[in-house]
Every structure is written in C-alpha cells, then in structure tokens.
Write a structure and sequence with these properties.
130 residues; mainly alpha
C-alpha cells in the first residue's frame, strides 16, 4: 500500500497544478471579456471550486511527501474531492458526459481505499529486533 500512496500523492500534485492552470485561464478569461452578472457569477463559482481543488490536492501531496501526521486526512479529503470532480458534471446545467472525469472517480475510490485501509501494526509482545 505504501507504493499506491506515493503514486496517489503525485497524482494529487499534478491535479493541483492542472487546476492552478485552469484557475489562471478562468481569471484571464474574465478579465478580457465583458460578461453579464450571471456569467460572472458562474465563472466565480468555477474559480472558487478550482481553489478548493488546488488547496486540498496540494496539501495532500505536501503532507504525504513530508510524511506528516495529517497526511492521511488530507489524502482522504483530496480523494473525496476527486469524486466531487466526477459528480460536478451532473450538477452543472450542461448535459452530463459519462466518459468525462471517470479517471477522477477511479482515483478518488482508490484513494479512499488506500488511505482508509488500516495500517499494518506489529503484534504486541513480539520483539522487533531478533
């Protein structure tokens, strides 16, 4: 399981960077276009969602990489965020595309399994050195 957790940590890092790029594009798009309040509101919500994905995935990667005690909880939050990335297509006003973001759903499920799985512990009363 440690290998899966390390791979997932780098997936979280890449997700954070991709959503940072997307956030940057949304901001530039809003700055260079003149939209009405409804469209600006929708773009603001999209950029806010991007900020949550960037922060959660970035913190998960950092905590796993530095082997901090809070790594498990950040990784669970990032895994849930990947599931939300998949489910978001059903909330937006456009038609859901089933093939879209299936990878995020798979990453989210694997992440939940990997980080919610109980860690292996040494049996008590057994000497660890001999």
């Amino acid at each position: 399981m440690p290998f899966v957790k390390k791979v997932l940590s780098w997936v979280f890092a890449v997700t954070s960077l991709l959503y940072l790029e997307n956030f940057y594009r949304i901001i530039l798009y809003v700055i260079h276009r003149n939209y009405g309040p409804a469209v600006q509101h929708a773009l603001l919500l999209a950029s806010l969602f991007n900020v949550f994905v960037i922060a959660t995935s970035g913190m998960a990667w950092w905590n796993i990489w530095k082997e901090m005690s809070s790594a498990k909880w950040w990784a669970i939050a990032a895994s849930v965020m990947h599931i939300v990335i998949f489910l978001r297509q059903f909330v937006s006003p456009s038609q859901p595309v089933w093939g879209r973001h299936v990878g995020a759903l798979i990453i989210g499920i694997i992440g939940l399994i990997a980080f919610l799985w109980p860690a292996e512990q040494m049996p008590s009363g057994q000497p660890s050195g001999s």
